[in-house]
Design a protein that fits this description.
The chain is mainly beta and 135 residues long. The protein is 7% helix and 44% strand. The protein has one domain: Jelly Rolls (Sandwich). The protein binds thymidine-5'-diphosphate.
Length: 135
């Protein structure tokens, strides 16, 4: 069963040039194959996103622009991680509760996901999530 020890910050390899920077996510650097990419944009600063865990999905969350806080919980412990660099990704495996808040103006939250969208693999109730961690 995953805990916060399995949540990891990944540095995405990047190329710096005078013309700008380029970051590359290749399959070797993340611990799952990407099936879907989605992103949050035009998010009001007081919005609360996430508020769920996944039974199947692994994710890599990146702040492509601006910043926001990701709160991860494993049922025992919680951690707040600010993402504010486009080449830093937060890996969240299955069975970890996540919340995202404190969005800066113009921020973009990119999520690389290991599964297609399937509402039945979401756990959106925190008490139910806690139960999955004790049984
Ligand atoms: P939701 O999971 O609540 O977003 P967040 O976790 O960022 O707060 O999703 C918002 C809506 O978008 C919800 O109706 C489900 C839908 N949705 C899709 O249709 N496809 C997707 O890939 C995702 C992630 C969400």
């Amino acid at each position: 069963m995953n805990t916060l020890n399995d949540v990891m910050v990944f540095e995405i390899p990047n190329v710096h040039e005078e013309r700008g920077k380029l970051a590359v996510v290749e399959k070797e650097i993340i611990p799952f194959a990407i099936k879907r990419v989605y992103y949050l944009y035009d998010v009001p600063s007081d919005a609360y996103r996430g508020g769920h865990a996944h039974k199947e999905q692994h994710s890599l969350v990146l702040a492509l622009s601006g910043s926001f806080d990701v709160i991860v919980k494993d049922g025992n412990t919680s951690k707040r991680i600010m993402l504010n660099k486009p080449h830093i990704g937060l890996y969240i495996p299955t069975g970890i509760w996540r919340e995202i808040e404190n969005f800066s103006s113009g921020s973009i939250c990119l999520v690389l996901a290991s599964t297609e969208y399937d509402e039945s693999e979401y756990i959106r109730d925190y008490d139910q999530f806690k139960l999955t961690k004790t049984t």
